[in-house]
Amino acid sequence: MAHKWFETVAVAQERAKRRLPSSVYKALLAGSEKGTTYADNTAAFAELGFAPHVVGSTPERNLATSFLGQPAAMPVMISPTGVQAVHPEGEVAVARAAAARGIPMGLSSFASKPIEEVAAANGQTFFQMYWMGSREQMARRMARAREAGAVGLIATTDWSFSNGRDWGSPIIPQSMDLKTIVTRSPEALLRPKWFLEFARTGRPPQLQTPNLAEPGQPAPGFFEAYYEWMQTPPPTWQDIAWMKQEWGGTFLLKGVCRVDDAQRAVDAGVDGISVSNHGGNNLDGTPASIRCLPAVADAVGDQIDVLLDGGVRRGSDVAKAVALGARAVLIGRAYLWGLAAGGQPGVENVLDVLNGGLDSALRGLGKADVKDLRPSDVLVPDGFTRALGVPGEAQEPPEQVEHRIAEAVAAG
Ligand SMILES: Cc1cc2nc3c(=O)[nH]c(=O)nc-3n(C[C@H](O)[C@H](O)[C@H](O)COP(=O)(O)O)c2cc1C
Q: Is the pTM of this model over 0.85?
């Protein structure tokens, strides 16, 4: 399929919507409950403005940087997503696109492709794990990723199994066997290009999790793995320190939005954190990650690499996050839409859109280097930021706290 260039991520999303069966598109959109956090992640970026110069920009600008011990062509990384059935080449296509554009890759443990294939396609692959199964199982999964050449581990611990969305959750079959294809044929027939792409490979979409397979065993199905995860007691900070030690290399804790948690993560020995709310898919009501970034970056940014993910759709969003203290951002839906719209070239297209937008922001701000971005380059409206978990700082305005206490007292 020849790729047709798209000029923004919004256009890629529109194409993905037209191309994918509605259940697969809905699975990418995700979000949880009312979608407050999901919406705030992008709305908050739009609230931020720029303070541009009009004369004196340099003819060329440097976008390259490094984070988590890796060089990168720009401060962007692929965030791990456990979404399957978007495209037959799946995470391998994403890894190739990221490698072609000099960007590190994050691979979800719920991904459809094995770490060996993905790490071979991108020499800067980070393997992502949840806290699930026994320590022995986790140690085996880490050893396999290390052997495959993963350069870092991402631990995601912010999942709280919130369920339900006001706009409904898609029904996702475990595998597309003949019976499922027949019962779901109206969806497939409405999206023939997507269906044909899988048909050509001779392998219908399967929801397997090859990176969670036990030695000598077949890959567990998505729902089987999800059940194992649900049964695992949540980790303690000692567990995180153990995980980092067991991995023995670069370690990113993803999902931190409070300052006190960021400080505990430093104590646990992590090399970096991503200020994140899981793209709004988790605890609805968590503020946009860009609102939480400045306080976290102020507190620990000189000790570890502070990254951000959630709501990044434009190169200017990357500039805003870096100006407010992020070493880099991770992107989720942006590349998933690119993948759905055009496979590997579609993901490359998304990365080019971000690159062009970041370069344009640097030019407008009169910066020769992405590392020169500062908070003063961004207009931050009053009341924008949220300093979560700052000792001694009230999270609610005092009058609201008083009102709540009065109500509780009245209610006995
Ligand atoms: C469909 C979907 C699946 C995801 N699966 C995972 C996952 O398996 N592991 C993980 O750490 N994060 C997962 N995430 C969260 C992303 O890594 C990232 O935090 C989020 O997408 C960032 O927000 P954005 O989509 O607005 O860029 C998922 C996100 C989406 C949208």
A: yes
